[in-house]
Amino acid sequence: MPAGRNASPYSRRPDRPGGRTADRRARRRRDRESPAGGYDPRERLDALRRIFFTDDESLGRQKLRLLRQGDEDPRFRPYRENVRWIAGSVVFVTLNVPGSNNNLGRNERMDAEHAARMVANFAWLTQAVELARQPAIRGLVVFAHGDPQFDRPADPADGYTGWRYALRAHVSTLDKPVLYVHGDGHRYRVDQPLRDLLTHDRISAFTRVEVFGSPAVGWVRVDVAPEGERLFTITPGGVPPPPAQ
User: Fold this and answer.
1) Poorest-confidence range of 60-64, 122-126, 142-146?
2) Please, which of 26, 56, 224, 235 could form a disulfide with 88 given CB 3.0 to 4.6 Å?
């Protein structure tokens, strides 16, 4: 390589057999074993909890009073990112259900994290649904990150199988509008992907909103009209043109 230029980290060198191919394999293996940019993902999550989820107020200029699962139930004290609030006669709940297969299938340590976290998630979702059953409540909004892949067949290696089943079971018995908001897929869409297990008909009370993601970054506005005929009105906006191919 000519003097004065920085060597590429993927340049072929005599002491690096296989050059770029070996480096890419090593990087993929490292990412599987230790995601989060090479950091310990559990340590990074704990840092986020210490920085952003310490009290009972939301972020933002107009703060909301939140109920955190970690304060509500000592069994789930670590899961402070799971919160709940009521506004406009609607229950809002957030749950830590991430993308990348819900952190299942990386290694034994991550599988154990997945199992413990989903116990907390199932309990928190159940409490939110029970609260939404009250006569004064008009509906439920659920926020998570991962795409549950609603059309995927049940598979032991699928980190969302139990999550889809729980959503279907709760929505089928709640008989009120449920809005499920997630990201992960980096594309905007609004649909009704949840189907009845017996009839395979779409469950009309359940609406999914997948928010924008890079490279098409935009925003989504959800208007709630407790006294209106339609409880949720969804409006996308601010979408830049996609990059040239």
Assistant:
1) 60-64
2) 224
